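Technical note accompanying the year-one report. For the benefit of new consortium partners, we illustrate the data format agreed upon in the data management plan: each record pairs a sequence with a structure-token string. No post-processing was applied to the example shown here.
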Amino acid sequence: MVMDDAERTRRTEALRRWALAKLPGVDAATPLEKVSDDASFRRYFRLPAGDRNVVVVDAPPDLEDSGPFVAVGRHLHAAGVRVPRQLHVDLEAGFMMLEDFGNELLLRVVARTADADLETAYGRAVDGLVQLAGVDAGELPAYDATLLRSEMALFPEWFCEAQLGLKLDSAARARLENVTGFLVDAALEQPTVFVHRDYHSRNLMVVDDGPLGMIDFQDAVRGPVTYDLVSLVKDCYVRLPRRVVERIAARFHAELADSQALPDLPAFLRWMDLMGLQRHIKCAGIFSRLNLRDGKPGYLPDIPLVFSYIREAAATFDELRDFDAWLGAVVAPGVATLAGRS
């Protein structure tokens, strides 16, 4: 389901009036300033409010359940994690007013950072990872085999068949099932911690000289210790040199090695790379579904990078060489065509 223009206009004005009612003294004619949409049906606006700005969110309750966002946000805030303060929430209407973290994404900082300085640029992001790993995750859903499998099922359905138009025979499906089982087993070997589940440069905000602000945390789970790490260092929107990836991973490993009883660094990097393969298989499917089902083609240009991560990881492990050969022969030509259109 997608909102039509008339409904969007109606909800935008209703959101503006709701927000202004919470901000006495602000001119009633003050307009909302569009900030962004995301991969969901939420829409974000900025509202000038005297000597500060606030962010107001439209999350239609028939399309978006904001309950997890509110609950996880309050849990993280109570744990001392820098997430937007929730100033006002109306779940029934689907409206929220949040602290404004500004516009400076980590992505923009990285884009203007020289390769030699990348590890330093990511320092506060690693601090945030370590902090998240110490947050109580006992009440969160488990990132279990069922969820891991359901995510990877998006790859054949939405990416291979729907987006690329491939016809997968029984041999291809059996191959994908073997890969899925292998990656699930690798993920479930790992210690579990609080997992943001989308910890990357577009969801980390440079607010000031303090900790980075974290957003888009509503899908948090209790899951593998390397998941957020690989989301950061093998970001779907920016590629880091492998030496930087390994140095960031080594720092995170050193910080958590004792508390999480981690294996040695080579074994930890294997966990990380296999976890990244699971994530990128999922992301190829999600980006395709956003385009085809939700009318959001903006993620299609990111698929070639995501696919390059998939190929890179598949070529690294002997257990996945057959999968890599199939990707090269069957899937890569379609991705090349997709890249040419983006």
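Partners are asked to follow this layout when depositing records. Residues 262 and 268 are 7 Å apart (CA to CA).
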